[in-house]
Amino acid sequence: MSVRLFFTFCLVIAFAQVIQAQNIIQTNPLPPIRTCGTMEQDSINRLRFPERGTLEEFEQALQKKILEINARKNAGSRTQGTILSIPIIVHVVHNGEVVGSGLNLSQTQIQAQIDVLNEDYRRKSGTPGFNSSPVGADLEIEFCLSPVDENGQLLAEPGIDRYNGGKQSWTRQEIDGSLKPTTIWNPNLFYNIWTLKFGGEDASLLGYAQFPDQSGLAGLNETGGPATTDGVVVQYTSFGSVDKGNFPIMQSPYNRGRTLSHETGHFFGLRHIWGDGPCADDFVSDTPAADGPNRGCPVGRVSCGGVNMPQNYMDYSDDACMNIFTNGQKTRVIAVTELSPRRKTLFLANLCSPVVADVPTAKFDADKQSVLLGGEVNFIDLSTNFPTQWNWTFEGGNPNTSNLRNPKVRYNTSGSYKVSLTSTNPVGTSALFEVLNYITVSNEGLCSELINFKSSYTPSLLKLSAFGNYSGYLAGHNSLQAKGFSEFFLNSQGYKYISAVKIGFGYSYTTHEDATVTVTVWNARGPQNGPGSVIERKTVLLKQIKEDIDHNRPTAVIFDRETPVFGRAFQVGIEINYDQGDSLAITSSANGENTNATSWIEKSTGLWSPYAIYLGANIALDITPVVGVNPSVQVSASKLLISAGEEVILNARGASIFVWTSDDGSIQNYAGPQLIVHPAQTTIYTISGSGLELCNNSATATIYTSSTITGVAETSSGDFIRIYPNPGNSALTINMQNNFNGPLEIQFHNTMGQPVGQPIREIKSENEWNLSIETAQLLPGVYLLNFSYGGRKVTRKWIKI
């Protein structure tokens, strides 16, 4: 036997675990074993669709639902009224083989797998799915191979969709990127399962499932992601059961159908029994902790202070070992069927029952029930008995009627509105199904501003000394060496983008004309909804802030690009440094006026804390994000502060048609997304966009000309060469970003063009390259740095103070 070794690893990430998977590792002489290879895939999926939120957020909602179910149970109510029947469609992905050979599984083998699934989920007596454990549970879920297709037509092979994929094997990227969206049946009505051969870097996989989504997450049906990838994928050699027939392609010890039982558990929200970490939590109270996955069937094994449960379907034991779902796992599954949109609709159409020649029963769902003023709602028909005609009425909607099966409706007036539907098939028309106050339209529009700093608050420039033996500002440079200040925004209306932010600064001082501050947007996934990962940063001149303070106006910061917040909570604020002796402070409310703990401060250690906890200050910072469902015109500039006549490149984004103007009259109706200018004085450039549905169709960029450096021209080859700090008083840093690598020479000159000191000769070895130069020997004044490299000559100015 040849030695094959497949390595996978389990990377535990706090927000991970939508996709659960199993790998096969072949070693010699041991048989193949399962192991976790899903965390990396889950991380990728959550990055692709951040609007899904984190698994922690789903877990919080799920635990709340579980508490409700347990309360009903304690009150004597049934936790599940009837057996749930789930229709399955198995997409048999083959490469042209005849039915019943190789990848093209036989109907008998597929039925054997469904029989095992029902035995396991019903804890059927006299089958391998039965157990006598005191915590063992009948999940009261049954599965059928759907007798009909999406249009209600009888299938020649119930529940089977044979698909020639034109290839022998598939990677997960290919499966989720193209195969699933191409072949999936309506995931609101069918449990989609794909059987195939994994290949490439995923050749060792046994299967993986998509975790359920939480109800109320906006946009999930619109993104083309979770709704088009929902379901389970299983390695074709592990689909079926050798206990129920002669299926030679099946590979021991995963040849008794438990891979699908395991992955279906994930599909309904169950997690690995060991919690994907040593003695970690699977959020089920009656499954014992374990130090990791069990292999084989080590009944009686002890770890984490107790006896393990390798018989549980959510472990990694051999197929023949598995036979237990617990009561706690059952409660969790019930919670998912009540909470998750596509899970709770799977059994509503009752497709597992024989087709009844009767009129439809009209039912519907929608991708959202709360909508912004001017927003759209996608309605989903869930009527039974396969209607062919629909008659919708949308109070307050545009259109207010529709005959489409799944219409899209816009709401332009705030209020609460009913929705009505009748559906018709050849037998007749359903009774009217009408839901009062089904759609709620808010007063907030598709484009808005979020404000914690109320007009009734007292604008204050609070000193830190009022909160202890400190100096400086509560929301600015201070003796605590605080590094950042931020405001939390719940974003309850689900805005997708931030185009700009308005910040009310109360004080600004600097001796450096090029001094800046960084305005930052974070997600709110840090501890206690604090600042988490950075979404966007924008550099702002303190020079601009000082002008805004002098004119009693907030500083408007337009981001360089469409900044997504994915319809979820976020934080906006500033990051500061203490290198140049600058002083800057944000206006806040008076202490005690805001009691919602929305303001945050970053300690010198880098840890974030609410002001209310760290300093006992109940304030709101004067920060106002400009948000929208639609994008806005954005503008970026290659430089903010220049010498007169220096080149600046401006780029616009967010629209399809762009027109530029400037306040000095030098640019009039220039068309195009990019503008190259050489302003002789401080100039405001305005970009207007059109061609798309926008929140803000214009943006401005102010380019400042230096008031210190005059009379000396620079030359540029178009390469990026930056000198900082500028002005500076000691060491300076040169940052070069271009594709030149090789010898270069740097020569200092005074303003008369005379060389100062000896040339500096270096080897540039990277596209982005930094060099530190000590200038203590130079007298204060203006210097020109001449760069010679690769036949090019570039001049940059530097001020020694």
Attribute tags:
801 residues; mainly beta; 10 helices; disordered N terminus
Could you describe the 3D structure shown?
The N terminus is likely disordered. It is elongated, with a radius of gyration of 32 Å. The strands form eleven sheets. Strands 1, 2, 3, 4, 5, 6, 7 and 8 form an eight-stranded mixed sheet that branches. Strands 12, 14, 16, 18, 19 and 20 form a six-stranded mixed sheet that branches. The protein is built from ten helices and 47 strands. It is mainly beta.
Task: Outline the low-pLDDT stretches.
Answer: 1-20, 24-31, 35-39, 215-224, 709-713
Proportion in β-strands: 25-35%
Main β sheet profile: 8 strands, mixed
What is the structural class? mainly beta
Q: Can you count the helices? A: 10
The amount of helix comes to 10-25%
- N-end to C-end Cα span: 76 Å
Topology, number of strands: 47
Quaternary form: single chain
Shape: elongated
Q: Kindly state the mean pLDDT as a whole number?
A: 87
Q: What does the radius of gyration come to?
A: 32 Å
Question: In a nutshell, what does this entry contain?
Answer:
This protein is mostly beta strands. Helix content is 13%, strand content 34%.
